[in-house]
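Quick one: co-fold with S-adenosylmethionine.
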Amino acid sequence: MIKDVLKANDSVNINDTDINALKQYFPSCFSKDGSFDVEKLAKRLKNKIDVSREGYELNFLGKSYARLLASVDTTTVIKPNQQHNVSPENADSENIYISGDNLDALKHLLKSYAGQVKCIYIDPPYNTGNAFEHYDDGIEHSQWLNLIIPRLRLLRELLSTDGSIWISIDDDESHYLKVVCDEVFGRQNFVANVIWHKKHTRANDAKWFSDNHDHILVFAKNKEEWKRILLPRPIEEKGYDNPDNDQRGLWASQPMQVKTPSEKCIYEINGPTGKKFWPPKGRSWQFGIDRYNELVIDNRIWFGEDGSNVPRIKKFLSEVKQGIVPLTIWPREEVGDNQEAKGEMKLLFPDDPFSTPKPERLIQRIMMLATHEGDFVLDSFLGSGTTAAVAHKMGRRWIGIELGEHAKTHCIPRLKQVVDGNDQREVSARLLSGKAVVVSSSIHLPPPS
Ligand SMILES: C[S@@+](CC[C@H](N)C(=O)[O-])C[C@H]1O[C@@H](n2cnc3c(N)ncnc32)[C@H](O)[C@@H]1O
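Sure, here it is.
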């Protein structure tokens, strides 16, 4: 017992009792790493408040500097990969790959592509505190905000007026990111917070919760101008048939009577076998006699195989509304999960898979909702290249930026496979006609003067 007390005493600091009291009463004055922010406490203790000067704003160390970073011009130069770019199969490419820091790269891009990008997807480091094999994901909270804010400001400038930005994030920073995005894109342009079911296994060793979702924050450049595209309706051929070989294709029969009767829709129908039909008591047919006769002429009324059943109306599969409105919860069965993404990586790089890829189906869903063929798609945290790979497979033009060494070891080899038509997995329904279209460039800092 005494041994335990002596051991515990070894790690006691002289201000522990005070700090614990402060933690109890002023938890908001401590940052995530447990350090105490005396200025926050001073603000809390101020007894005079100028209400007229208060607003909704996220404040953090270096916020003004973050704004400055977005405003100053880059002192870097783009060094094009001439050898690659002049080869005949690449000469007409409209796709761009830049390896380097996206802050500089975005500034270069703004000079030619401002207002031209239809969809931006980014999957920045989440600031989970982990050190992944290919990049570090643990920086101080305000440093993370300083990384994100200037880049968001530049990304906004690149968006077309009918464009949208989609940002993957998890619970560590998602709520701060929402506030920051409100500031950059305008609260009125917030579209949705999609919940992606990224994991189906339970981490039984999790200290509190086993985290199994990510957020995808969606903002439009201008919500009045942005139009989401409907998702393709899953082909539900179940229940559809074509027993009379109708040239309009598969159809299903539906009841012709309705519960709320209308006087002019109650009439006798003569079936093809001479059998007569009335709507059931308390009901009427769906339409009046004139409309009924039109439908008969158009071969849309069905009396069963032998012509003696109660009349029903034919509903053709080709005429069912083609698209469905997206939901804000995206199940892994529909868009894949982390495990699926890792599987995709292992197929491409069995010995050294990139550690935090997104599944291709997830990006495909975003592209479906936000872009048409030929639109420009941009990802400035490209990682292993998923966004560019999917965009290419879907016939979109793309711009990708990546800073890490895996730009060379993962991203470029992956995109080469895609543009050469050698990766036909998953979303590779259609490839752009023509051969390789990648333009590879890198940013080089000029020597210090
Ligand atoms: C979560 S990963 C993106 C993964 C990607 N969505 C995929 O499917 O492979 C984040 C990436 O951002 C890159 N990154 C971080 N800071 C960057 C910066 N300033 N400029 C460019 N890329 C950066 C990291 O190197 C990392 O590859």
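If it helps, The longest strand covers residues 159-169.
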